[in-house]
């Protein structure tokens, strides 16, 4: 096998360079002289994650497709700590990315099974209060382009950046309770009635009809006893201004057939 470098990282003070090689070795080099100082042995598959500690120049983290996460002392060339990402009933999970917290006391990794792994000091009770499955309901919503080549959300016909903050759902699209919906930036101070998503039925590519979150539940402004959402009002105003600009552009543009790209709009 011809050796190839898959990843490279400097330590915190730039005195050392660590390279990950496709023969599963990590090599520590003197950044000034280019001298090879250490071979770090431990990984059994290719490594694509090398992260230096935010302030301790001795510490380097590595993680790879073998599910192993190592904490190294690059000055001594020794292994300080080792974790193995074993998933019950599924074998190990390849680690795709990892980052230290700013204080260097924690680090978080993501794996090939969609898990977020958080390592650090103390107990895990604060994290156990959070649901195991957390997705935004807009994560897999289809997009289209209009005649001006602008991107729109297919279901709401709105520009994605003008849409309300998304809802938190599980892997099946079922919305979480309102106490979790307030974790989404923009929903911290919403009333309970604004945190209840509107559900609809959508046909999948296999012809199966599933229940999914469609979007922000809007409140009729004429309905007594309920106040309209301030966020909805802002979005309506922005949409109205955009429609007025679009109408002015169309009046000044020559008439002719419009060509629509992408998926046709849904009624």
TrEMBL record:
SUPFAM superfamilies attached to this UniProt entry: WD40 repeat-like
Gene Ontology cellular-component annotations: nucleus
Chain spans, region Disordered: 239-267
Renumbered ranges of WD repeats: 1-39, 40-82
Matching InterPro entries: Bromo_WD_repeat, WD40/YVTN_repeat-like_dom_sf, WD40_repeat_CS, WD40_repeat_dom_sf, WD40_rpt
Polar residues compositional bias, start-end: 249-261
Keyword match Repeat: yes
Keywords: Repeat, WD repeat
Name of one Pfam family that matches: WD40
GO biological process terms held by the UniProt record: cytoskeleton organization; regulation of cell shape; regulation of transcription by RNA polymerase II
Protein name in UniProt: BRWD1 protein
Organism: Picathartes gymnocephalus
UniProt lineage: Eukaryota, Metazoa, Chordata, Craniata, Vertebrata
